[in-house]
Amino acid sequence: MRSLDRRDFLRGTLAAASWAALPSSLTACAPRTRPTAFHYDDLYLTHDTGEDHPERPARLTAVMDRVSAAEWYPDLHQIPLRAAETSELELVHDPEYVALARTEIEGGARRLSTGDTNVSAESYRVSTHACGAVLEAVDAVMDGRAKNAFCAVRPPGHHATPDRGMGFCVFNAVAVAARYAQVTHGVERVLIVDWDVHHGNGTQDIFYADGSVFYMSTHQSPFYPGTGALEETGEGPGSGLTMNRPFAEGAGDAEVVGAFRNDLLPAALDFAPDLILISAGFDARHGDRLGGFEVTDEGFRELTRIMLEIAHVSGGGRIVSMLEGGYTPEGLASATCAHVEELVRG
Length: 346
Ligand SMILES: [Zn+2]
Description:
Strand content: 5-15%
Radius of gyration: 18 Å
Bound molecules: zinc ion
Number of domains: 1
CATH architecture: 3-Layer(aba) Sandwich
Strand order of the largest sheet: 2-1-3-8-7-4-5-6
Order of helices and strands: HHEHEHHHEHEHEEHEHEH
CATH class: Alpha Beta
CATH superfamily: Histone deacetylase domain
Distance between the termini: 24 Å
Largest sheet: 8 strands, parallel
């Protein structure tokens, strides 16, 4: 079934049924060996942040030089380019903010008035496509065309709050994808993990009081944007569904992988997600231009394997990962390649 038929089917038939029936029914429809889905397009190179800005096109050029040379690259399911609709952005963003971002960018702004996000003429188009790509990836994984997915997109998204672009981010693609999966595919519980070296304040804000989305972040502290304390654990229906693991500069595999295995793994299995989204920021890698963590490529492989472990127990193996930060192009390319290779093996 393609998405429209599936949407009608899910809304009409499964609305009153047990949500627990959804994952197994989808898995049962899927072929036995499914590829990993992948998305990249040169469009993302046209978001111009200015000379020597760390969030630059060369990041993706380096990633693609490395990934496209991998022996498994030809086997990836390529995800087509598409823009997120305004109504999709508004699943998590205030309509006023979406309109403001568009007006400012189309009016020639070089920086959003809401925060430290540099933009250029193409940035609205690029940002809506970065978001749309993750939605296409959700479709591919939920429809069973792919077992998991990675989107090599920019700008990143996890700092964008409902009403504010900041921290190089315009729209929060991973948050839009979580809501989209719920609305379009009838997914009930979504787990979002964020191993970017910065705390994903936007994602946390959006789901802080939400009982259907579990958000976990490891990040450097004290560091930008200043949120993500251990004590921030959610509120109301979302109580206990935000998990922050801040670590001092210099933390590496022992701390980050340890938090995922010892703290996230049991909590995630208890939460029992139907879908897992990853804010894959590789600025936690050693040698990053901005980050002060020391995570190795093997560390990112292990994080990926832990997520696959969770996904195979709960969620039919379904993982959609998207690039967030990572500001030393060669290191970013190496870590991304390691991450995608584990998704392919998983
Ligand atoms: Zn970051």
